[in-house]
Amino acid sequence: MKKSGILNRHLAGAIAELGHGDEVLICDAGMPIPPGPRVVDLAFRAGVPSFAEVLDGLLDELVVEGATAALEVRAANPEAASLLDSHFPGLDLIPHDDLKARTASARLVVRTGEARPYANVLVRCGVFF
Q1: Which of 40, 45, 63, 105 could bridge 126 with an S-S bond, Cβ 3.0-4.6 Å?
Q2: Is cis: bond before 49, omega within 30 of 0?
Q3: How confident is the model at residue 122 (pLDDT cuts 50, 70, 90)?
């Protein structure tokens, strides 16, 4: 059995398949997920695992060259906005409807148990060299 890092075999495998420019949506339990992207649903119950826990775990595994979130996060969920700002200084903000539309082209969607609005971010994979 793996000793550290991501233990969920579906998530570990999906991360290993990502390449430069691929997008990953890390989202709350209420985000509508269109057919198309591979989905790893980690939601266990409301709030478990949290958006922050999943984000931190994924950022330990991914090289990220950019991130996009919903403009509405600033007013509706200041805690998530602060978390995103601390992780992504160049965070791009777009209307939530536009973020939902971009989800269809994501390579991977990771659903958390977060039960607060707009705890969603679309990250663009970079390269480690």
Answers
A1: 63
A2: yes
A3: very high
